[in-house]
């Protein structure tokens, strides 16, 4: 027993006595499947939706504006002002991802470990806001390269971190819409300009974002002073949720996967990374994401592509907005349907095929109407890309350390596609950009093939579970199932029976 444990008040009864469950009884959940339980979950989700979602939506808008502000600045003469060539401009675009890509994996591992993700993400937002503000005072190629390189480090924490944070609060059939709502911020950001308001929202997010629902060993969690009826150690630290709401949040995720959403003593961050690296699905997801992002790399040059319509700079910037606003709306509707049906492959790859149609139109005509329609079809590809990390989270749910590493790996490697894409849209290939379109079209075909492989792997896994429900029980982690049973107030055997119903979404 540690010195800290010795200082705790005595507990009536031993570790297995009913009196140790006093704290849980104070916040006993409504019976699963009852109307009272459904209403309690609705209230919890509504509270999360009104506080968590708007915060990360706004931060993501600012994140993307800060990252891609140079694309708008190019139309306003940045390239001439800084005396940089087309190759140097492509390097300005690409250099951000040199730091952004590799930093995502350790960042997500840190995010899974820290007890206050709100502070971690908030501080990162402040840092990239400061660095972005400094970009505006650069005088030469070296200065803007330095700013772009350093802005990639704090930005690496946000998108994969936000998806992981959402996965700690929403079930697998709630996650797609919430992630799409977040991604709608990215799509909206492509329509507007930015500013140093990022710093303000960085500080604000430290108060608005939730922290983790913490799981502790039972002998620590249940040490309660019966005489004073006060917690000696809180099992979680989100300040704006009640104790019963925090327990309900834990129980929902436990019920969703048949296991508690927690890391055991053997599930270190390094072990989670090792498990993710060994899982072939993670590697295939990573290659799929690289292909997707390369296929969508036109986004970094979207104002330039819009300029090929032949209008002045002001009208060009106005015409840039509608395709992204439409895509933002479709993004949310697509995810709502994906959550309702539980389907993933077609809700992701169907939109890649829409982009391919847009590319074909762009190659076939230089008419203003045809090219503008192609821009709408091309921007819709991000509707599917918005759900890629959702699918990763669904396919690799436990332990959280593995899920965090997998999300970081897939998104980190995926953004290598942005580095490649930075050099795929040469000014000398314009205004038709046939070579650029051919590169991106090929990449999207490859992403479809990778996605199809993942889908078939998950279909095969589900068939095994259908044929032999014991496989679901054999693959379970006992400690996490025990925690799920405790949260639901049922026996271990009942929890194991529930786990038989777990299936992967594909």
TrEMBL record:
The chain crosses the membrane at residues 48-66, 87-105, 117-137, 149-170, 182-209, 282-302, 314-336, 348-366, 372-392, 404-424, 436-454. Its main location: membrane. Residues 1-37 are annotated as: Disordered. The keyword Protein transport does not apply. Residues 12-23 have a biased composition (Acidic residues). It is found in: Membrane. GO terms for cellular component: membrane. Gene3D superfamilies: MFS general substrate transporter like domains. Keywords: Membrane, Transmembrane, Transmembrane helix, Transport. This is Major facilitator superfamily (MFS) profile domain-containing protein. It is a multi-pass membrane protein. SUPFAM superfamilies: MFS general substrate transporter. InterPro entries: MFS, MFS_dom, MFS_trans_sf. It comes from the Eukaryota. GO terms for molecular function: transmembrane transporter activity. Residues 52-463 form the Major facilitator superfamily (MFS) profile domain.
């Amino acid at each position: 027993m540690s010195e800290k444990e010795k200082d705790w008040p005595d507990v009536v009864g031993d570790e297995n006595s009913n009196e140790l469950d006093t704290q849980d009884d104070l916040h006993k959940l409504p019976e699963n499947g009852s109307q009272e339980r459904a209403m309690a979950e609705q209230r919890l989700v509504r509270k999360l939706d009104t506080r968590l979602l708007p915060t990360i939506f706004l931060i993501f808008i600012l994140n993307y504006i800060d990252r891609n502000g140079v694309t708008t600045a190019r139309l306003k003469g940045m390239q001439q002002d800084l005396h940089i060539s087309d190759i140097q401009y492509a390097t300005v675009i690409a250099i951000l991802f040199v730091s952004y890509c590799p930093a995502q994996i350790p960042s997500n591992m840190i995010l899974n470990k820290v007890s206050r993700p709100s502070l971690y993400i908030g501080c990162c937002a402040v840092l990239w806001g400061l660095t972005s503000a400094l970009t505006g005072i650069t005088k030469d190629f070296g200065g803007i390269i330095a700013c772009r390189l350093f802005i990639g480090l704090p930005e690496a924490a946000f998108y994969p971190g936000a998806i992981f944070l959402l996965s700690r609060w929403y079930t697998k059939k709630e996650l797609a819409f919430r992630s799409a709502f977040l991604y709608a911020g990215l799509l909206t950001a492509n329509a507007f300009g930015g500013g140093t308001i990022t710093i303000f929202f960085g500080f604000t997010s430290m108060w608005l974002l939730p922290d983790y629902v913490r799981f502790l060993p039972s002998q620590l969690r249940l040490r309660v002073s019966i005489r004073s009826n006060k917690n000696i150690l809180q099992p979680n630290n989100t300040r704006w949720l009640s104790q019963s709401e925090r327990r309900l949040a834990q129980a929902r995720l436990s019920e969703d996967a048949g296991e508690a959403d927690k890391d055991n003593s053997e599930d270190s961050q390094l072990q989670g990374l090792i498990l993710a690296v060994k899982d072939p699905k993670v590697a295939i997801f990573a290659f799929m994401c690289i292909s997707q992002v390369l296929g969508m790399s036109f986004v970094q040059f979207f104002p330039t592509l819009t300029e090929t319509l032949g209008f002045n700079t002001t009208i060009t910037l106005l015409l840039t907005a509608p395709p992204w606003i439409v895509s933002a709306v479709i993004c949310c509707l697509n995810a709502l349907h994906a959550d309702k049906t539980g389907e993933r492959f077609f809700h992701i790859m169907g939109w890649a095929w829409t982009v391919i149609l847009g590319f074909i139109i762009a190659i076939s005509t230089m008419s203003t109407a045809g090219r503008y329609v192609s821009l709408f079809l091309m921007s819709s590809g991000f509707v599917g890309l918005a759900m890629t990390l959702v699918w990763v989270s669904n396919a690799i749910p436990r332990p959280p350390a593995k899920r965090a590493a997998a999300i970081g790996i897939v998104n980190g490697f995926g953004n290598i596609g942005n580095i490649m894409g930075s050099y795929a849209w040469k000014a000398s290939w314009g205004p038709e950009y046939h070579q650029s379109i051919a590169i991106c079209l090929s990449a999207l075909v490859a992403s479809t093939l990778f996605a199809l492989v993942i889908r078939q792997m998950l279909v095969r896994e589900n068939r095994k579970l259908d044929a032999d429900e014991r496989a679901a029980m054999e693959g379970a982690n006992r400690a996490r199932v025990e925690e799920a049973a405790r949260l639901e107030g049922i026996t271990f055997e009942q929890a194991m029976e529930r786990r038989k119903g777990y299936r992967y979404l594909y």
